[in-house]
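hi! just following up on the protien thing from before. the input was this:
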Amino acid sequence: MTPAINAAKKAGVHFTVHEYEHDPGTTAFGEEVVEKLGQDPGRVLKTLVAAVEGRGLAVGIVPVDTSLDLKALAAALGGKRATMADVAEAERATGYVAGGISPLGQRKRLPAVVDETALAWETVYVSAGRRGLQLELAPGDLVRLAGARVAAIARA
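and the predicted 3d structure came back as:
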């Protein structure tokens, strides 16, 4: 059980946990999920931690086949610019390890923005809080549980 799974249970939302054999030699975590679970890369979301000027740390949740548009993330949160957070800083703030950072159940809930394309899917996949574990849930539930805003923050 992870804090992300506990958060989903506590909220009473419908979700499914998917486990797969994580390859410890890979750092392409999102692509690994797509391959191992056989899902569309637009449906599998990665949680990226960024430092937004004047706002502190925040998370951008985008499809694994896209990049996080840092300027768009900053704008969605009322900041001017953003930079990717240091991995150690992201891990300390969320309580998760890189490749397993979930938008749910973070040590300190960071402001979050979900890319608008996620809403096109009936369900989406996000990290369940560790490598090799994914949480499938409705995008509306993801937005609500993460306390997220929805905006165009992904770029191809």
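The CA atoms of residues 35 and 81 lie 33 Å apart.
The longest helix spans residues 3-11.
cheers
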